[in-house]
Specification:
Shape: elongated
Largest sheet: 4 strands, mixed
Strand order of the largest sheet: 1-2-6-3
Structural class: alpha+beta
Low-confidence stretches: none
Radius of gyration: 23 Å
Helix content: 55-70%
């Protein structure tokens, strides 16, 4: 059972349930429910917050995948690009673990982890190959005396 309260001065709707859990749904545009514009939405139930969280996580994940694939396909041949990719993957994993894990199902987590693991291994492979090329190019021209 839940109770909906509308505060037209603050434009907020709160869903209150027995399961005391509070999650603010971030939205820049706001929501329109029954002709009432809502800027801030606070959900007090995990089951009710899940669709909002899933939409947010999928958007962040798609944005990260697009950025990583764009960086990998670019022509830059420096170590910093791949180090940045690895750092972004770890930041996303920590964000999921700390903030969004209770809202996601096991199969959704596994699907994201599988894609991130593949991209991470590809970035590591390219970083190591670049490192080997750099080491070899530094050693070329040095003779043993």
């Amino acid at each position: 059972m839940y109770k909906v309260t509308v505060n037209k001065l603050k434009n907020t709707i709160n869903y209150i349930n027995d399961d005391v859990y509070k999650y603010k749904i971030p939205n820049k545009k706001g929501f329109n429910i029954n002709g009432c514009d809502i800027k801030n939405l606070t959900v007090y139930n995990k089951k009710m917050a899940r669709p909002f969280i899933l939409k947010i996580v999928n958007h962040k994940f798609d944005k990260l995948i697009f950025k990583i694939t764009d960086d990998m396909s670019s022509d830059s041949d420096d170590d910093e690009t791949y180090k940045k990719i690895l750092e972004e993957i770890e930041i996303f994993r920590l964000l999921i673990r700390d903030k969004y894990r209770p809202f996601l199902r096991k199969n959704e987590l596994e699907k994201m982890a599988k894609k991130l693991k593949f991209l991470k291994s590809e970035a590591m492979r390219r970083l190591l190959s670049m490192h080997e090329v750099n080491v070899i190019s530094k050693n070329v021209g040095r003779g043993s005396r």
